[in-house]
Design goal:
Length: 448
């Protein structure tokens, strides 16, 4: 089959011991390749894509191969792979994926020639400890090194990266010289038990992940970030205080921060999500600030009863509210709070909200934003929403109704919703909140 150009083998295939030839392939996709190397007479110079996941390869080939057409190398989960060949003549390579190649110790210095490389993924290469530095790959956009537990130095191979994952490494801080030159970095994940302080952060990031670190407070360098929209400090067991947050912040995930006591919101902009699941040490001032924050998505925190600001309360999953004439308008909004009994997580099934007028006429029906519902004690789940469907003519609006019923449910844990409270937003609060949230939705709609 000398004219064969595309070869794909999806399952483990036994091949004869004397097989030493493969055609001049453009694509070789061989899952569970059984040998330690490719056939000696294989000539890869026409290859465009090489995908050999779950292989037994220890190396690909010896020497320097001229591979002007090669754009993708994917050796994911090749646990026996010990070395990467010299790639100095693979100058058009765009993607190199070595995820969980757990025997790989170093990346060759020849990657300095890969000036078209866009993606380098060495996630969970647990033996990797040698990476080239000061080579500044011009096109590199994404670098994944999460789970490289022997990595102790911050990678310095490109000033142009936009996504950098250093989670579960042994890196202790971000060097100022590196932080200052990463002007295009948008997403930084540096969650690690080794991270005990953070003194420098690239200035223009929009997402920062510090999960599982040993930091005790949110440092000034994070509070001063002017574009940060998403901050995750989940499972930071020693985190005691959040003394401030950037005014640009839209999502804060602080689940399982078991030592967290103080949270200060230094801005009044509405946020998309605030999650403090299993944060049992929050003081009253922090709780009050969290509950009163204007939100677009949801708030979650420990709590045993509906806060006083929810003027209508009921035991169970439903509540009927009498309405005075003129209470509602077509743009009316509501704020709801649920007390949920301790439960295990039930996947991606969200809580539903059904709103009906007197006589059972449907006003609104929606799914509340999904949230992990794994709680070790009673929790409050707070959402804002439109009372009437927006941009939807399915239902005839009746702003003169004399009463309205809210019913909350969940496919699996409906009986764990033990109390509910609703606040119908006043006209003044409604206008202010709607304006803020409308502006937020326009500016940050892509997060929704």
């Amino acid at each position: 089959m000398r004219n064969l150009r595309f070869l794909t083998i999806y399952r483990s295939l036994q091949i004869p011991e004397d097989l030493d030839y493969l055609p001049l392939l453009r694509l070789l996709h061989w899952k569970h390749y059984p040998r330690k190397s490719l056939p000696l007479r294989f000539q890869p110079e026409r290859l465009v894509k090489l995908r050999m996941r779950h292989s037994n390869l220890e190396k690909l080939w010896g020497g320097i191969q001229s591979l002007p057409n090669l754009k993708i190398i994917d050796l994911k989960l090749s646990h026996e792979l010990k070395e990467i060949p010299n790639l100095s003549k693979s100058t058009n390579l765009e993607e190199l994926t070595l995820w969980k190649c757990t025997s790989l110790v170093e990346l060759p210095s020849s990657i300095k020639n890969l000036q078209k490389l866009k993606i380098l993924n060495v996630d969970y290469c647990s033996m990797l400890q040698v990476i080239p530095t000061n080579i500044n790959l011009a096109s590199l956009e994404r670098l994944d090194m999460g789970g490289c537990s022997r990595l102790t130095t911050f990678p310095d191979i490109s000033s142009n990266i936009e996504f950098l994952n250093l989670g579960d490494t042994d890196i202790e801080d971000v060097p100022p010289s590196v932080a200052g030159c990463l002007s295009r970095l948008d997403h930084l994940n540096i969650c690690s038990r080794s991270l005990k302080r953070l003194t420098h952060v690239p200035l223009f990031i929009t997402k920062l992940v510090l999960e599982n670190s040993d930091i005790e407070t949110i440092p000034d360098c994070v509070i001063g970030l002017t574009r940060l929209e998403w901050l995750s400090v989940e499972r930071c067991k020693k985190l005691e205080s959040i003394p401030g947050l950037p005014p640009s912040l839209r999502l804060l995930e602080a689940d399982d921060c078991v030592s967290l006591e103080r949270v200060c919101f230094s801005f009044h902009n509405p946020t998309k999500r605030l999650s403090f699941r299993n944060c049992f040490k929050l003081d009253e001032e922090a709780r009050r600030g969290i509950i009163q924050k204007s939100i677009y998505d949801y708030v979650c925190l420990p709590g045993k009863k509906i806060p006083a600001e929810f003027t209508h309360k009921a035991t169970g999953r439903s509540i009927t509210i009498p309405l005075a004439p003129g209470t509602l308008s077509a743009s009316s909004r509501f704020k709801a709070c649920l007390v949920i009994f301790p439960v295990n997580d039930y996947g991606y099934e969200g809580i539903s909200c059904s709103i009906r007028s007197k006589g059972g006429v449907k006003v609104q029906s929606c799914k509340l934003p999904y949230h992990d519902l794994s709680f070790r004690s009673k929790h409050l789940f707070i959402v804002h929403g439109d009372l009437f469907p927006q941009r939807n003519n399915c239902y005839e609006l009746d702003v003169t109704m004399s009463e309205i019923t809210f019913e909350f449910n969940h496919k699996y844990i409906g009986d764990k919703i033990i109390e509910c409270g609703v606040q119908i937003m006043t006209e003044e609060a409604e206008d202010s909140s709607s304006r803020k949230l409308d502006n937020y939705e326009t500016e940050f709609g892509e997060w929704c």
